[in-house]
Amino acid sequence: MHRCDMTQIFKFGGASLRDADDIRHLGHLMADFPGRPLVVVLSAMGKTTNALEALLDAARGNDEANYRERLENLRRDHLAIVGALFGSKASPVAQRVEALIAELDQHHRTLAKHARPFHYDQTIGFGELMSTTIVSAWLEASGIATRWQDARRLIVTDDCYQAANVDWAATTERLRELAWDDCRLLVTQGFLGGTQDGQTTTLGRGGSDYSAAILAHCLEAERVTMWKDVPGLFNADPRRFDNATQLEHISYAETIELAWHGAKVIHPKSLAPLQRKRIPLTVRSFKAPRTPGSTIDADPRHDGDVPIVILREAQILLTLYPRDFALMDEAHQHDILGHLVRVGVHASMIDSAAMRVSLCLDRPTGRLEALVEALSADYRVVRRNNLTLLTVRHPDDGLLEGLSAGRDCLAERRNADTAQRLFPGDQCPESWHLPT
Ligand code: ASP
Ligand code: MG
């Protein structure tokens, strides 16, 4: 395989692709940034995927007027961007967008009777198909030799629709078969894959980060850069904490911990494929490309430098007491965890005592009701809603006490490197300050 430049992968998310100005900015960034990448992975523009989900519901609900209006909005918004970018030369790109909209419409007409996950995957990726069509044409028009690449023929998966599993060997093989010699920049869709026999699959919401990591892994890339609407990773969500500080450097293992505890930084599945090949990942600001960003790699030396704070809201606390006043021994704990596994609910914290187990669970879903019902056969279940789970990595006591002051701690768990406390949501502010 011939490599033209550094084997870097760039990924741009929907928040960096909202309008024509963003696409122009992307073009400048690609022209100016040192080290042109080999592959660019794109999400759908702005909130297009949400709009496609609503379109799907309208199609399946036989809500014809609503469906028509939503399809027309998608068409109009994308064509407006094409018009703004290409002006009098818009027609070839506009025709491709029109063709994608017609194909999407056709799919909805024929698939509404199929199972929803299949129908979902055959239609939800049109946001990515349109964004890559527009952006690759724009880059080409700006003088960057570009090739649009269909990710459905690149990332090979099983047929587990909406959460497809990657066939790593087959994907590596497909990438090897690609013609790299013409030095063109490959622009492809995040989020999408395809089965061996050509059905479209998706990797789960937010899966474009994962796509970039899959391609990097299989290509043995030197680096992945994810361009985001934040300048990097922070020790707390900068939208919620007025004095959060940026982390310059952090390890894969620490980042996986943060994602596990609910930090919305990078799609959690993206780290492992990079970690296995020791490919560094840099998160950078799309708006300020020259600022240093945050780098994630195998080096753990800076992980404990500052405490990292994660908030998880809309939590539910289920406290279980055995009806027969038995002790919460391993058999009972095994039984309780078995119920969680069966209904597919994740506990964000488990806190146990002699005659009680407390489970902190993510926001209510239909499955939660099934879980409570199943547990109620053997346990008295006390439920509290609307809680905020605070997780601190590398906690110091002053920080923990400062963040807890004036709030009732409903459950707590602590080990050598992580402390968690659960508070009533109505005692927690919208805007926080890290005590110093
Ligand atoms: N467009 C998809 C989503 O919004 C994938 C992504 O953005 O990563 O979930
Ligand atoms: Mg998206």
From TrEMBL:
Record's catalysed reaction(s): L-aspartate + ATP = 4-phospho-L-aspartate + ADP
Any GO MF annotation of the entry: aspartate kinase activity
EC number from the UniProt entry: 2.7.2.4
Keywords tagged on the record: Amino-acid biosynthesis, ATP-binding, Kinase, Nucleotide-binding, Transferase
Pathway assignment: Amino-acid biosynthesis; L-threonine biosynthesis; L-threonine from L-aspartate: step 1/5; Amino-acid biosynthesis; L-lysine biosynthesis via DAP pathway; (S)-tetrahydrodipicolinate from L-aspartate: step 1/4; Amino-acid biosynthesis; L-methionine biosynthesis via de novo pathway; L-homoserine from L-aspartate: step 1/3
TM helices/strands, residue ranges: none
PANTHER family reported for this sequence: ASPARTATE KINASE, ASPARTOKINASE
Protein name per its UniProtKB record: Aspartokinase
Native organism: Halomonas nitroreducens
